[in-house]
Each structure stands twice: as structure tokens, then as C-alpha cells.
Amino acid sequence: MITNDEPNQVFENEVLLTVDSFGERFLIENRENSLFRCIRPNYVEFVFTRQVFDYRMFMTNLYTFNELISTEKYPRVQEYFATKILQLSFYIDANLMMIENPDSLTTIILKNLLDLSRNDLLVNKVKKMTIRGTDIGNIYVPQWTRLFRRFKSLEYLDISQNLLQNNHDGCIDVWGIEKRLPDYLQVLHLDWNFFTHISKDMLIQLPQSLKILSLNNNEIEIIEICSIGELLPNLIELDLKHNHLSFISPEIFSDCKGDFVLHLEANKLDPANLEDVRRMANKNGFKVVY
User: Fold this and answer.
1) Three-state DSSP class for 154?
2) HSE toward the beta carbon, residue 242, CA cutoff 13 A
């Protein structure tokens, strides 16, 4: 695991390096570093978690990581990426405490996403990605969300707590106008954002491989009538707890089967409507948590 210098979490891994010490393994020539460069790890994690009052060091580490993945300053790193790394995950938690982070932090986060998507040695090795606790939902959302399509092997994506909404920069239902996610994605977290509705088009544009879709702690009031079981045939969990739903059509779940779980806790559903959803669940054999 490669982390920033002052992470906001404690990790237990076989090998734990800061991003600077990882870079030094390829700049400084000695026996220990030579042995390190020969090891083929099963899995590499790049993890950056910001402490509440730390912007300077956090951004410095993100810039260092960007140099590792996007320049020729570290040719041995590029060789290592090409020949030794088989799978990796990328995790950023900027621990957003205000409505806006410094513009420079937003910029380097998006630059890392862009350059990682352009790195042919790494882009198809990324299995898991988390970018959370930022304000990237305030800028160029229709553009940067398209980058996820380049990560062909991505199975898990968490973009929670990023001020994301249904409409951005004049685009209505930006998540429903085109495909933005890779075809084999299995888990998608959009929690703690500002979504107000789920459109049929939004569901159509999600990959049919999706197994878990989580939209808890948003402001969802409306789900357009459609068949979720038909549009997302592999979905086994839909998390809608802590939203503003006052009505939900049971027909939306008419094609959902026995292994499906629907979370509706802490909404504003009428008891009669909730009972109708529960009857549909009993009929089809799936589970409703409320």
C-alpha cells in the first residue's frame, strides 16, 4: 500500500510506503531497492486520506503521485507499472469540511483521474476506485465522468460525498444522456450527494453488470416508473435509505427476484404504499428493509 505522509486512517499491510518513499525505491540505487523492484505484488493500493487541517501536505503528495503516473521523471516506475503490477486500487478521501475545497486541491484530484485514465500501463489494471469527500461535483461533471469509461477492468466505484447532482453545467439529467461507466462495473456508490430523482434514462445508462447500487443519504423524491429488474438484471442490492421518498411504485420492482434486497429506511413513505411494496416483495421473494 502507498499512502500520503499524514493519512487520516491507520492501515495494516505487509508493505506500507508513503508516496515519496515509493518514488525513492526507483531513484536511489541500493540492494534493498533493487530487490523491491523485482517483487511482483498481488495487489497495489494507492490510498490518500486527508486529515482535517492538512491541505498542504495532502496536495503535495497528490502532485508527487501525479508525477509518478504521468511523466518520464521515473522511467523505472513506468517499467514497474508495465511488468510487475497486475491489479491496483486508487483511493482518495479529501475529507470535505466546507462547501468548497481550495481550487488547487480540486484541480489535482481531477488531474490524477485524467492522467491515470491516460496511462496505458495502468488504466486497465485498476479494479477499485474511490474518490470521496471532495467538491468535484461543482466543476466539469459532464466531462470528467466520461473518463470512467476508459477503466475497462473497473469493478468497484465509490464517488460518494462529492456534491454530485442530477443536473450539471446546463445538462439536464447528465447521468441519463450517455454511458459514463465501464461495462463490467459491479458496485457503484453515489451516497451523500444531492440527487433528487432517479430517471429511467439514468438506469438505462448504468452497466447491466451492476450488482450493488447505493444512493443512500441523498435528496431523492422521485423514481421514474420503469422495471429495475429488467434494466439491471444482475442487481442484488439497491440502497435508498435516508432519502425523501414519499411514494414509490411497486411496479418498479415487478421483475426483481429472490436474491434482491431493497433498503428504504428513513424515508417518508406512506404506510399503505410501503405495504404495497412489501406485498410485491413477498410475491417475488425479494427482501425489503424499512
Assistant:
1) coil
2) 10
